[in-house]
Amino acid sequence: MTLSWQSKLAYGWGSLGNNILYGFVATYLALFYTDVLGIAAASASLLFLVVRVVDALFDPVMGMLVDRTTSRWGRFRPYLLFAPPALALLTVIAFSVPRLDSSTTLALAYVTYLLWGIAFSAMDVPYWSMSAALTLDARERTSLVMVPRTLASVGFIGVNIVTLPLVAVQGWRNVAVLYALIAVALTWITFARVRERDDYVPSPRYAAGEMLRLFARNRPLQLLLVAMLMTEVAFTVRSIIPAYYLRYNFDAEALVPLFVGVFAITTITGSLLSPLAARLWGKRGAALAGLAVTTVTSVGSWLTGYQSLVPILGWIALTGIGYGVTNITLLSMLADTVEYGHWRTGRRTEGLVFSSNIFKTKVASALGASLGLALLAAFGYVAGARQSAAALDGLHATMTIVPGVIGALAAIPLIWYRLDERRHAELVRELEVQSAGA
């Protein structure tokens, strides 16, 4: 089934809304906790690790709920109607936590962030699960996924560009309200304009105990999740550090929007190039090429040092291209594992596949944020103070070589990944023959 660009764009608006809120929280909640609420970096590091891991345990449950859903709006769309307002409200609440005594403030941060994560799952799991129900064609999926992931980059990195200037004028809570309203409106466009394909037939419901068995029999899914976990840990570290890095290493906090904007433009460029890269080298080859770019440029920026911001901007621009290609191709490959699981087990479980992906994203976010903040604490970072040489060197390493090494590790599981476009097409044909004969 070939999807029109109008349908792809309508689907993509939900990703833009989703990632406006995700980008705001993923990038700036750590800064809000440490520099506004006064939570120590070490305590914030533990908070991100504990909350995201606990929250991630909800994702498989959410996936099972999605795979069990039947409604007049289909399997996925009801969540796009009801979850966005809850997520929007909890975003505002998270950035409204008052600065009280340290233990009370920390407790409020734990509770509000955990609730935010659960609401995020309720929207994100069904949203991405829906992509596998829109088309069965592997190449068409790359084109489909490119649109929401490109718009996701626009939302995520665009928020990085404008947030600090807006906060300086409006404050954290008002900015949260603005982003929340925009996100709800955009996601409701997807709800109103996108439908599952006409021939989509969901598999029968499965019991909770069967979930692990279905996951265990989908080896391509397992390999992809490991690769994506490494990639997203590296991206999370690189996302939360620029506000600290620019402020202290370059005394140039005002240039954070420029720094992030350069990365935004090149990431979007890489996203747009991903279908071409996939046609030339296959999805797996394109992903490996993107990872090679992010690793080489990370090492290059580390060796350059932080005496001047200009060469760092050049390196981060090239890193963005590699990340954009890798991100789109890996996510498109993830949708292909739905058919592999269907072929292997007889059950079509979009909710399981994409809830596993969101589980992985939350674990990656937890590990990345916790690692970044833990490294700040280890290198002697003190909020608002003049940093030591060791802290400045540590910030530079955390911004450059650390995510580069982690990203390089993502290539390892892809060595064993064998579900290429040819094999996926064979599986789809076999499933069609089985369906016709049933």
From TrEMBL:
Membrane topology: Multi-pass membrane protein
Keywords assigned by UniProt, alphabetized: Cell membrane, Membrane, Sugar transport, Symport, Transmembrane, Transmembrane helix, Transport
Organism encoding this protein: Actinoplanes hulinensis
Main location class: membrane
Places the protein is found: Cell membrane
Signal peptide feature range: none
Transmembrane regions listed in the UniProt entry: 12-33, 39-58, 79-98, 110-129, 150-169, 175-194, 223-246, 258-278, 285-306, 312-334, 363-383, 395-417
The keyword Lipid biosynthesis is annotated on this UniProt entry: no
The protein's name: MFS transporter
Gene3D superfamilies: MFS general substrate transporter like domains (1.20.1250.20)
InterPro entries tied to this protein: MFS_2 (IPR039672), MFS_trans_sf (IPR036259), Na/Gal_symport (IPR001927), Na/Gal_symport_CS (IPR018043)
